[in-house]
Amino acid sequence: MSLRGLDLPVSFAEQYRLIELPPWGGIIDRKWERVLTSDAKQEWRQLINQSLSPRRFKPRERGRRCLFSKVYESHGIWFKSYPNVSLSQRVARLLGRNKAANAWRNAWFLIQCGITTPRPVLALNAPWWRRQPEWLAFEDFANAQTFTRCYSNQIASGRGMQKLLIAVGQFIGQLHEARWWHRDLNSSNLLVRASADATYEFCIVDINRMRRTRRMNQYKRIHDLVRLGISRSDYETLLKAYCDATGVVVDTSMLRRALNHSQQLHAARQAGSYLRWWFKVSYQLGKIRNLGT
After folding, report:
1. Residues carrying CATH 1.10.510, the chain
2. Looking at residue 54, what DSSP letter applies?
3. CA–CA separation, 167 vs 171, rounded Å?
4. The pLDDT of residue 293
5. I need a labelling partner for 164 at 20 to 30 A (CA). Which of 48, 93, 119, 127 fits?
């Protein structure tokens, strides 16, 4: 089922209703409607309306998208914008390359596959020819931290590292078994919630680039595995758990080459010479892609 150009599973469609917030139109979760539309809870509208100002709006900027959160009735909501300023961005939306709609659609596909991602509660879109950014709001994955911080804490404490590596290997394996390719699975896009008994829950964010693929080859698997920011010595444990979850043995020589290229990319970014790095390494990346059968 589609509302405002946003796809929804039929079983969830009646949980949402249309909302008008000129110059946007969209849909809102009925469970959150009373909270978000009450007169006492209008801070989010004021922040969103600031994005219409000619001055640059950034309550908190992450990459090229603005991000801010609010807490209502002890529950957090994250608001994220997708810009529509340049001509290329508007043409891309006309051609169907709509990041907000992709994030919304991917969230519902992941939820149906049993993979944890924040549940969308609000979507605001505008016609492609207008310059207004689009907005999505998601429920917060409470008491979580990024995989980067969780991994660093385990290194500092010296306890629970193996359980963490096994858990993340199994989670990524579950993602790939559902034929989902994240394409940007760095350690800040994977949230971790640890319990007192050293078990871990994972949640994927920043999902607008995700793709459902008919065939998960070695290239796609390795592309998601190399950006977690863990040490090479820890990959043995992670890959064993990944293999147990998927039944697929990752090509370690391809993984090693991809890790080398990832390190070169990081060094080039730090030195501000990304373009030079790209011309130097793109041929090798192409060879890795061609080997990924």
Report:
1. 145-291
2. S
3. 6
4. 45
5. 119
pLDDT at 68 over 60: yes
- What confidence tier does 283 reach under pLDDT thresholds 50, 70, 90? very low
Model confidence, pTM: 0.83
Structure tokens at 194: 């640890």
Matching CATH number, 145-291, of 1.10.510, 2.30.30, 3.40.50, 1.10.3210: 1.10.510
**What six digits make up the tokens of 203?**
């949640």
CA atoms within 13 A on the CB side of 211: 11
Q: Is 225 helix (H, G, I), strand (E, B) or coil?
A: helix
Residue partners of 172: CB distance under 8 A and separation at least 6:
185, 224, 225, 242, 245
Residue 249: predicted pLDDT: 94
Closest CA to 26 of 126, 107, 132: 126
pLDDT tens, position by position, 201-233: 999 999 998 999 989 999 999 999 998 989 989
